[in-house]
Amino acid sequence: AMAVLLAFWLLPLTHLILLGAQGTEGNGSGYWQVLSSAQYLGSLAQTCLLALVVTLVALLIGGISGVFLARNHFFGRSALVALLTFPLAFPGVVVGFLVILLAGRQGIFAALGLELAGERWVFAYSLIGLFFGYLYFSIPRVILTVMAACESLDRSLEEAAHSLGAGHWRVVCDVIVPGLAPALVSCGAICFATSM
C-alpha cells in the first residue's frame, strides 16, 4: 500500500510542486508570481466573498428551517424534509447543470424574461449563478445538522427564560442560538469550504 501511495500520489505531487515553483524564468518564483498577480488576487477575493455570503445565507435559511422542522410535527413533514434534503443525493456537476437549465441562455428564466421584459434573463454564468448553485447545495447540510442539534437542546431552559419574563426573541438570542452555536459553526465551516 505504501508503494502504491508513493508511486501514484506522492511522486507526481512532488514533481508538480517543484514544477510549479520554477516559474516562467526558472528561478523558483512561480508561486510568488501567481500570488502577486492582481488577476489572481481579485479572483481569490471574489471567491472568498462569495463563499462567505453563501455561508451566511445558508446558515440563516437552513437554521430557521431546521429549527422549525425539528420543533413542529405536522402532516407531510417527512416528505418536506426529504424534499429539502434531496440535493445531498446529487453530485456538484448535477447541481451546476440544474443552474444552467434554469438560468442559462436557453433556460426557464431566459424564456420568462423574454416573455415578460423582452430580453433574456441569464445569470447562470455569473457570480449570481454560482451563488444559487452553492446555496442550493449548502442549505440541506445546515437543515440536517440543525435538526439533529435541536434534539439535544434542553427545552426547560427555554421555559425558564419565558417564566422569568423573556420574550420570544430574547429566548431565541439567549437560549436557542447559543445552544445551537457548535452546530452552526461546524455547518458554517463545511458550507464555506464547499463554496470555495
Automatic annotation (TrEMBL):
Is this entry keyworded Cell membrane? yes
Please state what the protein is called: ABC transporter permease
Tell me the lineage of the source organism. Bacteria, Pseudomonadati, Pseudomonadota, Gammaproteobacteria, Pseudomonadales
Indicate the principal place this protein occupies in or around the cell.
Answer: membrane
Q: Where in the cell is it found?
A: Cell inner membrane; Cell membrane
Residue span, ABC transmembrane type-1 domain: 44-196
What are the transmembrane regions? 47-69, 81-102, 122-139
A single GO BP: transmembrane transport
Which keywords fit this entry according to its UniProt record?
Cell inner membrane, Cell membrane, Membrane, Transmembrane, Transmembrane helix, Transport
Q: Write out the similarity annotation.
A: Belongs to the binding-protein-dependent transport system permease family.
- Matching InterPro entries: MetI-like, MetI-like_sf
Q: Got a GO cellular component term for this one? A: plasma membrane
The topology of this chain with respect to the membrane is: Multi-pass membrane protein
